[in-house]
Prior knowledge:
The protein is α+β, with helices and mostly antiparallel strands. Helix content is about 55%, strand content about 20%. The strands form 2 sheets. The chain has a 5-stranded antiparallel beta sheet, with no helix packed on it. A 3-stranded antiparallel beta sheet has the order 5-6-7, with helices on one face.
Amino acid sequence: MKDFINIFEINDEFIKEYASARLNRKIFNAYNRILCVLLIIFGLILIIFPIKYSIGPDLMFIGISDIIVSLILFIGYVINFKKYTSTMKARIEILGKNIKEVKNEIHDNLCITTNNIKDRSYEILLSFLDDHFESKNYYFLIFSGDILVTFKKNGFIKGDYIEFENFLAKYPKKKNTRALILGVCLTLLILINLKYLINLYKYYLIF
């Protein structure tokens, strides 16, 4: 097995990127984010054009419902983002407020993590790796017990990010039921919106 050694700094950028990536992984994946944007666009169309062309209130009701759903999801995103950032900061404080740098290593079947104020290493068997995901600058490994180990993409001093991606490919990602359920619900809403938008095109020719 390829060995890896990686060093990264703990700062606000890391915490925010982790929170965003974890939230996107669990609920707001790329597909769901695209559907949310479409829902806002469709909602605005179904509000503006009925007002402009004096069409009945049914379409406006659908449009307003779209905007409300989008706002609820946005508020939920903000709340959970703050939750993840505060949780991460609390974890760092428990380990030690002066932790600024962390070194993580992969050797044989072990993941070894150390930081700048601890003189001992923590070892975790790779067989306990439950999930993994990435952001723009980091790879996040989640072990049993919700233990997080982070590798920065440009922080490798042994190995590189391409080799690390190939290494992670051997470990399947965990399925996220909440993201799937949200995706199904948003897809149904989009299909309902498309039905009304097609009716607008057919009967009112407003496009």
